[in-house]
Amino acid sequence: MKGKIKAGIIGGAGYTGGETLRLLLNHPNVELIFIQSRSHAGKPVTSTHPDLIGETELVYSAGSNQAVDVLFLCLSHGESKIFIVENKFPDNTRIIDLGNDFRLGDSAAGREFVYGLPEFQREKIKLAKNIANPGCFATCIQLGLLPLAKAGLLKEVHTTGITGSTGAGQKLQDTTHFSWRVNNISAYKTLTHQHLGEINQTLKALQSNFSEEVNFIPWRGDFTRGIFVTSVLESALSLSEANTLYKEYYASHPFTHVIDEMIDLKQVVNTNKCLVQLEKVGKKLVIHSITDNLLKGASGQAIQNMNLMFGLDESVGLKLKSTVF
Amino acid sequence: MKGKIKAGIIGGAGYTGGETLRLLLNHPNVELIFIQSRSHAGKPVTSTHPDLIGETELVYSAGSNQAVDVLFLCLSHGESKIFIVENKFPDNTRIIDLGNDFRLGDSAAGREFVYGLPEFQREKIKLAKNIANPGCFATCIQLGLLPLAKAGLLKEVHTTGITGSTGAGQKLQDTTHFSWRVNNISAYKTLTHQHLGEINQTLKALQSNFSEEVNFIPWRGDFTRGIFVTSVLESALSLSEANTLYKEYYASHPFTHVIDEMIDLKQVVNTNKCLVQLEKVGKKLVIHSITDNLLKGASGQAIQNMNLMFGLDESVGLKLKSTVF
Amino acid sequence: MKGKIKAGIIGGAGYTGGETLRLLLNHPNVELIFIQSRSHAGKPVTSTHPDLIGETELVYSAGSNQAVDVLFLCLSHGESKIFIVENKFPDNTRIIDLGNDFRLGDSAAGREFVYGLPEFQREKIKLAKNIANPGCFATCIQLGLLPLAKAGLLKEVHTTGITGSTGAGQKLQDTTHFSWRVNNISAYKTLTHQHLGEINQTLKALQSNFSEEVNFIPWRGDFTRGIFVTSVLESALSLSEANTLYKEYYASHPFTHVIDEMIDLKQVVNTNKCLVQLEKVGKKLVIHSITDNLLKGASGQAIQNMNLMFGLDESVGLKLKSTVF
Amino acid sequence: MKGKIKAGIIGGAGYTGGETLRLLLNHPNVELIFIQSRSHAGKPVTSTHPDLIGETELVYSAGSNQAVDVLFLCLSHGESKIFIVENKFPDNTRIIDLGNDFRLGDSAAGREFVYGLPEFQREKIKLAKNIANPGCFATCIQLGLLPLAKAGLLKEVHTTGITGSTGAGQKLQDTTHFSWRVNNISAYKTLTHQHLGEINQTLKALQSNFSEEVNFIPWRGDFTRGIFVTSVLESALSLSEANTLYKEYYASHPFTHVIDEMIDLKQVVNTNKCLVQLEKVGKKLVIHSITDNLLKGASGQAIQNMNLMFGLDESVGLKLKSTVF
């Protein structure tokens, strides 16, 4: 396409809206046309994202502007569907929904959504008009299992995942009170996390006979960013065979890397990367995978999908300096 | 006194109420008669303090019981005065107010309050009928300055203090959101903190010509418990003279220790102690002092005051295992 | 027994030695005769445990004193066996080893060791002369599984556990560097943790036909104290049946409580408690269990064992105020 | 200059070497020719900086390569001087030293060094051949005081600053042990911090009659990145006058911003920014300033200096996404 991509953000004051904004401000091929926020309309974006002081003079709009090429919906779950029904955009405006309204095949306002996990279906994404951006846990768990599913080798999986507090959003809650959460660990939504729907949908699409469960135990961690997942299953593959399978699968994917050393969460914090590490002990294959829940698990992946839809290199605007420490 | 001290707590569901409860449950000379909570009446105290599961079957009461020897008021600032006006207790019921309603000499319902800093006026406390328990920052700052004031050596002081998040209470607030507060530092109430009133009141009582300021910069820390204070002032004392002055002052006080090595906050967390360390560089005397804001800075000091009022050893029920790590 | 129990600590400068010291100092039935440290002999214990300033004037000894009723070995793994071979103590001196040298049935210097998990074999412990104190992860995992094993209902288990940094000891290591560990999560010893030996030994003792694995994934957490474990297995029990089984099993055990609400780690930090919570989803029974790795997982349990061996109430000296926040 | 700037890094395995590497890898005008590390020669840089997996195949060199336009010295204090004496580089190779060897006017190997604080002397830096990059605390404190010194309004200053653990470097130390540092605060180098030399040198250069002290209390914080500084002094300026003075001073400087709202440390973490906020209470002017100690306080400022020396826009390669949370 000629010129810059004109982009708009709906729901810019929250965590995913803010991260999408941070990425778009530094994206060389994008011009941010507007950023909407119902609760902060008329205020500068720096009033809610003060780390951007000196980088932008943008002011939140109350409404949206139809003259955009791409629209990022950064709304609470359930609100995206309502929004696109109530707000008509031109047919050629791409929509990327960061919520969970369209991940399981739902459509609205005549729009069909493609599940936006590039490592699963990059070619479909390139042709998509609308994207349902995957959930944060869903991304990290699937990236640990995709190669096995593609090879038809998936069996019952036991998965534990721990997430940073930003996964719970900006709203004040008992479980995000500092005095409670710091130095604390807790479990929630045991075996019933809402991301299991999209996870199973993908795995069955790759391995049609997969009827076993992904037994997923989510934990709340006492950090803000990142997801660490360990999945365990029986496998006849040797470690070497498994590594070959995984490395071949991800060879052409710039953000997902299979590595041989033990990984730790901070290797990916503040980046769009996913690192995967395999171990084999006895009959059990163990897969560790890590992502930043707000980037590869949300806004970063949304930009990656935008890049693919507009024919750009997948990683434009996503070469981020990790925080490391 | 014969038999156990009958105690009641008003406002048991908050942080200071909960800590008072934890201390009274293990106090060998106290029988806890009731613990009141407007918002949780009828529920077990373990519903709000689940760490006490297995230790108590107490249920929050809606009202209070007059047949107590001592009453701990663990209310929001401003509510204590209203409470004692609306709820008459027998004259011989001692009241210990953990709020700030009576620290500056106010009285209500015919009750006069003694400022309950044992290292300042232990003998008065022993005879008191009602105690205004000091503020958390006020305690830690005063314990760093009392010996100088007593000796008439106080000059203008520059003080910086950092506090844990529990100092801000249990209510959900932007500044106690985990995602914001962790790894973060911020300033608030610069040079205007409400504890300056009680600090200056004590210092002037000891050194009548003290008219200089305590310039106090409070910071919010990214931890839950504890206060670290550094005060700087000009002094003609040598380090050795200053140490002698301080060690003599605190010699008979079981919870405040003057030590020669560099101190760190976790040495006092989960205890009723205050550690003080002095340094002298050029003309400047530097005093570091540390306390746990919920114990020596609130509930622990309240129990210490109760012990004194009832003729017990000051430290009964307060030999607490520090968390250390 | 008449008079106080005379106790000695070998290896007092480390974490478990320090916690044992802190507990013994406040134990009403114990007189601490000596605390030994090779590296700190001649120095006050407050030089390594400065939080004890004001509580003890003890000085580390170079050697040990045979006139003790009980000896706590707080040494690195492998050193206990060497110690008791090289240092003869009277036959009636009880030895409690906090290391892992004797947990799998090894003996030395003519001493047989009883595995000191009170919830597993309290009566044996009461009669024991020497105790092999369980490992921290081993304690928390077993307390989540004992009732099932006793009922013969154990099947293959998938367990994930996360531990505080104090589990890695005091030695400076890459994985305990603050800049690395804070906000970080990592896996280690996947499916091969050394505590699996003692775990399987207990489970098979209770359920002789248990030949399935405990698949244990240990994670390093970014906090200092505590272990959170989730175990998952298939079970025909309903939630109600499982709760009944567990509550009956632990009814007479003062430190382990089965509760119905979601648990979080800080409920047990700085206490000797274990909380267990059950969930049932589909065919899967899920057991969450939490402990403080240095107390119920080490020094607290050692004192509990001492109490049992000397005919005291199990919980004397162990009514600790939790840190809560 | 034509083509890319050829750069080399000496001492690439530490924190500042690693951050310099991360910035140079994404700098559009730089080609990184080599990265040296004595201890890791021959190993891939991802062996010490695993967050860079997928971004670079660079291997540490044992020695250096003279064919570079700019050399970054990321060595321990004292080693830079030795290095440039023992290793001759062409005269037109610019050297940027991140250590403290040349900040107070020392020269070596015929090279004179310009103190590299752009907000103090940008024009000199543009013409410099060699740069002494400022210290982390020194940067944050000076940026809070420069406008006053320039206006001749500086008086005795009381400053407290708290720093993240990365300021203490990568070496394992007692004060960077996770179990000790987390949730902890401590003071060190009270009124004697080594950065006072360069701070006073700058302030006196701007205000020749400044002979009063900067009384600086440094604290260790329980976070990894960032410095928060509060300085207090008497001033006749109103808040409005002070804000005008500061805003005019920094108007042309892209990384330092004077803002009216209360600031918090995470607003600048993982960026090259400095935020400054002023308050006036009574006669006292209070200045809060914040920076990331590894970026504006070290590697980011080094790149900023490089940009200036090579005629580039000051902010090229430094538009970093903040971590925010």
Summarize the structure.
Four copies of one chain form a homotetramer. With 325 residues, chain A is α/β, with parallel strands linked by helices. Chain A has helices spanning 15-25, 79-86, 118-127, 136-150, 178-181, 196-206, 239-250, 299-309, and strands at 5-10, 30-36, 70-73, 94-97, 114-115, 130-132, 157-163, 186-187, 214-220, 227-234, 256-258, 274-281, 284-291.
Fourth CATH level, the homologous superfamily of the largest domain in chain A: Dihydrodipicolinate Reductase, domain 2
Largest sheet of chain A: 7 strands, mixed
Helix and strand string of chain A, N-terminal first?
A: EHEEHEEHEHEHEHEEHEEEH
- Named CATH architecture of the largest domain in chain A: 2-Layer Sandwich
Helix content of chain A: 25-40%
Low-confidence stretches of chain A: none
List its traits.
Dihydrodipicolinate Reductase, domain 2, 8 helices, 325 residues, alpha/beta, Rossmann fold, 13 strands, globular, 2 domains, homotetramer, 7-stranded mixed β-sheet
Task: Provide structural commentary.
Four copies of one chain form a homotetramer. Chain A has two domains: 5-133 and 298-309, NAD(P)-binding Rossmann-like Domain (Rossmann fold); 136-291, Dihydrodipicolinate Reductase, domain 2, CATH 3.30.360.10. In chain A, 25% of the residues lie in helices and 21% in strands. Chain A contains eight helices and 13 strands. Chain A is α/β, with parallel strands linked by helices and 325 residues long. The mean pLDDT of chain A is 97. In chain A, helix 4 (136-150) runs parallel beside helix 6 (196-206). The B-C interface holds B 15, 18-19, 22-23, 26, 49-55, 164-166, 182-183, 224-225, 254-255, 257, 259, 261, 263-264, 266-271, 273, 275, 294, 319-325 and C 15, 18-19, 22-23, 26, 49-55, 164-166, 182-183, 224-225, 254-255, 257, 259, 261, 263-264, 266-271, 273, 275, 294, 319-325.
